[in-house]
């Protein structure tokens, strides 16, 4: 099954942190993954922050960004233009009272009619309380489906 993945999931492909095993299983077993192009910036920012805090080696941050780009080049991860999602994402951000950045992923999931996988429990909880509750799943749920 195909999914939209957010940066919280993609970071777990590189960093050893809780949920990394499910995130990596999802990467290996899903036929196709989708994300807004903003994912690249968000993952790079998260990995460099982890490297600055010495949570991961600095070389791993650069390698992680390359890994994400390889997934895009290999067509396993399809990126969509942020600008095409902005109107819907802005409305979702207002409706959910949540950050626009996260709602870019939700807007893409709604447009493609595929589930969004997120490791952001706060965001997932917000969506689960909305009319879009069927569009969001946890990493463990996605790994089991894929």
Decide which structural class fits the backbone: alpha/beta
- CATH topology title: Rossmann fold
Main sheet attributes: strand count, strand direction, barrel closure: 5 strands, parallel
Return the CATH class: Alpha Beta
| Number of domain modules | 1
Number of strand segments: 5
Read across the widest sheet, the strand sequence of neighbours is 3-2-1-4-5
The 3D shape can be described as globular
- Please give the CATH architecture: 3-Layer(aba) Sandwich
Distance between the terminal alpha carbons, to the nearest Å? 5 Å
- Determine the fraction of residues in helical runs and give it as a percent range: 55-70%
Describe the protein in words.
The model has no long low-confidence stretch (mean pLDDT 93). This protein starts with a strand and ends with a helix. The protein has a single domain (3-145), classed as Rossmann fold (3-Layer(aba) Sandwich), CATH 3.40.50. The radius of gyration is 14 Å and the shape is globular. The protein is α/β, with parallel strands linked by helices and 146 residues long. 59% of the residues lie in helices and 10% in strands. It has 8 helices and 5 strands, in the order E-H-H-E-H-H-E-H-H-E-H-E-H. It has a 5-stranded parallel beta sheet with strand order 3-2-1-4-5. It has helices at residues 7-12, 20-29, 38-52, 58-73, 86-96, 100-112, 121-128, 139-145; strands at residues 3-5, 33-36, 77-80, 116-117, 136-137.
């Amino acid at each position: 099954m195909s999914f939209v993945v957010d940066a919280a999931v993609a970071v777990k492909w590189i960093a050893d942190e809780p949920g990394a095993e499910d995130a990596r299983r999802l990467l290996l077993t899903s036929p196709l993954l989708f994300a807004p192009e903003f994912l690249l910036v968000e993952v790079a920012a998260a990995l460099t922050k982890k490297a600055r805090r010495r949570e991961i080696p600095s070389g791993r941050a650069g390698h992680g960004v390359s890994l994400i780009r390889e997934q895009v080049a290999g067509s396993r991860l399809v990126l969509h233009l942020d600008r095409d999602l902005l109107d819907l994402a802005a409305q979702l951000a207002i409706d959910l009272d949540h950050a626009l950045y996260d709602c870019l992923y939700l807007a893409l999931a709604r447009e493609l009619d595929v589930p969004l996988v997120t490791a952001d429990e706060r965001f997932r909880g917000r969506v689960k309380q909305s009319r879009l509750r069927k569009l969001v799943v946890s990493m463990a749920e996605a790994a089991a489906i894929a």
